[in-house]
Amino acid sequence: MLDDLRDLYQEVILDHGKRPRNFRQIDNASHHAHGHNPLCGDQLVVYLAVDEAGVVQDVSFIGKGCAISTASASLMTEILKGKTEVQAKQLFERFHAMCTGAEAQSTNGPTDDGLEEDMERLEVLSGVREFPSRVKCATLAWHTMTAAIDGKDQISTED
Amino acid sequence: MSVMSQTAPYDVEAVRSDFPIFRTEIRGKPLAFLDSGASAQKPQAVLDAMDALYTGAYANVHRGAYMLSEKATAAYEGSREIVRGFINARSVKEIVYTRNATEGINLVASSYGRKFLKAGDAVLISEMEHHANIVPWQLLREQIGIELRIVPVADDGSWLMEEYRKRLDGVKLVALTHTSNVLGTVTPAKEITALAHAAGAKVLLDGSQAVVHRTVDMQDIDCDFYVFTGHKLYGPTGIGVLYGKEALLDAMPPYQGGGDMIRIVTFEKSTWADLPHKFEAGTPAIAEAVGLGAAIRYVEGVGIERIAQHETQLLNYATQRLSAVKGLNIHGTAVGKAGVISFTLDSAHPHDISTIVDRAGVAIRAGHHCAQPLMARLGVPATARASLAMYSTKAEIDQLAAALDVVVEMFS
């Protein structure tokens, strides 16, 4: 039984789930948004400090969630630092496609968008594909990040 | 159907053999179904009754003057008599079929509420209500300006009679769960009703989680309205019951207009059918009503009090067994609670718990259980919940406990 589950709960996920990185508030954040998954009650806030050139200087989150949503948020904050807003959104779309199994149909530009390495890191979360009810856990932080960049302050996975 | 002597020891394996779903395996493992509080499995007797109607006696009810329609009508109305007997209502006129308990509450809020309540009147609910017994009253508040008042519950889920009593002044309707779907708390319905009546308030009870676990008697409780759903009572989905005292139902306007609920229709004016049909507009859920009747017959055949005893023994076993899991907290430990165990683990989120135990063939519910205000009260975003039924076994509890040990191992 443990072996089956290792696809979903890989060590990286358990580690980030237990010890999330960048788990803090950013006081001078340029953007932030609240994310809520009403189905399971998970809530988080994503903070971004984006400079005038549109580069993410700092990114963090706080909140409560399951191992999948916490690990996904934690990995996201590590990956987004130093990325442009445009890249952040590209990553979101590719990540979303990966989680829903729509990867092949992704029309997001050429695969040489320089994000391959980041996508490889996110591959640990691809196990949610087999658990449709958990896709929203994996994508909550990403939806929230996108909403923050777009200037919305709230996002719900049911919207 | 296995016939069990009412005096012999409870034979849970005989009961299980009446439920075809237990021949199914989940991921190659026997199914441990611990989510009957969300919806119960169906005995063969229910499937057979619905099948027999569709294959041999199906037509629309209350309409055709021909044999099939008369047969279908007899089956449909016959099931109403079974429901009446099950909750000991005085008359079948007091048994209104609805889609589910939710519709029953909405019917009362809409029909009774808009006719008999006015701005400033208070409706009293509790902290442990299902959304079905919160939102209809909020809608009514928006429509006519009632006040919605909330009775707190104790940390262990116990009913606080004094807190209830203190809030009764100015209350016109008390709308409460008879058994909490999260905490298992059984509210003292009879005393609650007597106090409400003394304060001049009517009482509606949501018995969806109550009728499955114990005998419920309308004459004993004396409440004014009582609702429950069929699918948690081993019956089909799409059928529920609203019990209402005849004089009240008589005084209430129809909930929906349409066929079957009228006596005479002209373009100038229409008059209403007698109870209970006044509240059953349109073609009803005929086969589902018949299925519900069969489910109740099945439950009565096994014996509701024997089921209650079986579930209580199992609840005690499960409470003990789960308490031994490292870092497990049970939410709701009121005395006399029903077979519902909500819990959280220090090490893992309820959704992670549910996903992992599912791999061991164990079905439990994880989430807010349609009781978000109660989750806030308990200070948790969600809980995992194991709920028991007439077919639940110790082996299923053991299967859950072993799976929870795996969760703890993974996450700590």
UniProtKB/TrEMBL annotation, chain A:
GO molecular function list: iron ion binding; iron-sulfur cluster binding
GO biological process, one term: iron-sulfur cluster assembly
Origin superkingdom: Bacteria
NCBIfam families listed in its UniProt record: SUF_scaf_2
InterPro entries reported in the protein's UniProt record: NIF_FeS_clus_asmbl_NifU_N
Protein family: Belongs to the NifU family.
A Pfam family assignment: NifU_N
UniProt cross-references to PANTHER family, sorted A to Z: IRON-SULFUR CLUSTER ASSEMBLY ENZYME NIFU HOMOLOG (PTHR10093)
SUPFAM superfamilies: SufE/NifU
First and last residue of the signal peptide: none
Lineage: Bacteria, Pseudomonadati, Pseudomonadota, Alphaproteobacteria, Rhodospirillales
Residue ranges constituting the NIF system FeS cluster assembly NifU N-terminal domain according to the UniProt record: 9-91
Listed name of the protein: Iron-sulfur cluster assembly scaffold protein
TrEMBL record, chain B:
Reaction(s) the record says it catalyses: (sulfur carrier)-H + L-cysteine = (sulfur carrier)-SH + L-alanine
Record-listed E.C. numbers: 2.8.1.7
Keywords: Pyridoxal phosphate, Transferase
Matches recorded under InterPro entries: Aminotrans_V_dom, Aminotrans_V_PyrdxlP_BS, Cys_dSase_SufS, PyrdxlP-dep_Trfase, PyrdxlP-dep_Trfase_major, PyrdxlP-dep_Trfase_small
Cofactor(s), names only, from the UniProt record: pyridoxal 5'-phosphate
Pfam families named in the record: Aminotran_5
Domain Aminotransferase class V stretches: 33-400
Top-level lineage group: Bacteria
EC class (word): transferase
GO biological process: cysteine metabolic process
GO molecular function: cysteine desulfurase activity; pyridoxal phosphate binding
Family: Belongs to the class-V pyridoxal-phosphate-dependent aminotransferase family. Csd subfamily.
Role according to the record: Catalyzes the removal of elemental sulfur and selenium atoms from L-cysteine, L-cystine, L-selenocysteine, and L-selenocystine to produce L-alanine.
Name this polypeptide is given: Cysteine desulfurase
Origin species: Oceanibaculum pacificum
